[in-house]
Input
Amino acid sequence: MPADMNDYFKKKKPNGTNNSNKGNGNNGGGGLKMNNTGGGGGNTPMGKAMPWIITLGVIGFAFISFKPFTIINSGEVGIKVNTGKFEQKPLDAGLHFFIPVLQKIIPVNTRIRLITYSDLSTGELGDDYRGFEGGLRRNPAITVLDKRGLTVNIDLAVQYRLKAESAPATIEKWGSSWEEKIINSKVREVVRDVVGQYTAEQLPEMRNQIAASIEVKVKESVDTLPNKPVILTSVELRTINLPPKIKDQIERVQIAKQDVTIAEQQKEKAKQQAQKAAEVARGVAEKNRIEAQGEADKIRIEAQEQAKANQLISSSLTAQLIELEQIKTQGKFNEALKVNRNAQIFLTPGGAVPNIWVDSKNKSNSSIDKTNTENMVSRMEVPQNGN
Output
């Protein structure tokens, strides 16, 4: 026990005891030994646990100070670095420990990322919880010279993500600025190469073909890199910004084309209307022709049938038949004379029928009728005398 503690215990003893101790130094020494044995604290439980408490405290302080662990989130991989050398196997999501000073773990984002090439003033977004580079990056629009050397600005959007399996090798080779070295450089190179093959006036018309060519060539350029460090999802051509003069010229050409198209449509419409009118006229003419042809065919058929009837009648007439008809007619005249005795009957020359009937009942007209009758008879007899 320390000396000051011995003095303290000596002062607490009774006086008799102190006196006896003075005369016997050995006893004093023995008393000191007894006090060291009985009053010491080195053998108490608190004294025995003290070294362990101190050790744990030091370890806890070191654990908090050096933080020898890290947590990898979903959508990330961890790259463990051993004394400056990258381990090629990435660490999956979860809790991982490392040895401070000798080792460290670098979390790397493997989510789908987006780079836009545009002059629009939009903010840059990222993963705020981590403080690393974000998932959305904005770069200026790509300035390209067309086939004639005119300046054209191209707006693009590229979606991609870091390949998790080869992330350690990619970061080891390309560094933390791998996006600028791989994506940005390849995209600008391909865009300038593709767009430079066309004139500014051709770009709006060939937009779809240019967009497809840019996407294919960018993917081919990225995939040819060793280990394919980046997986390219899409390359979208957003806007082609032409010079103002070229834009005005294209608008004038488009307006002229629209006017030509309208004129052609009007011409085609007039042509269709003329064709329709011609078809109607041809239809009316055909209708009239068919009607006229039908009427002519009707008259022709009637004439043919009448001729056939006359021919049949003519072929059926005989002298006996004619004589019989004359007798029948003469009999009708005789019957008529019974009613009108003043009637006069004149037979046609040769005894043909019909005969001439003259009613002379009216005396005032008898002379006229008689004269007319005589004239008629004389005219009718002329051919017969001639024969």
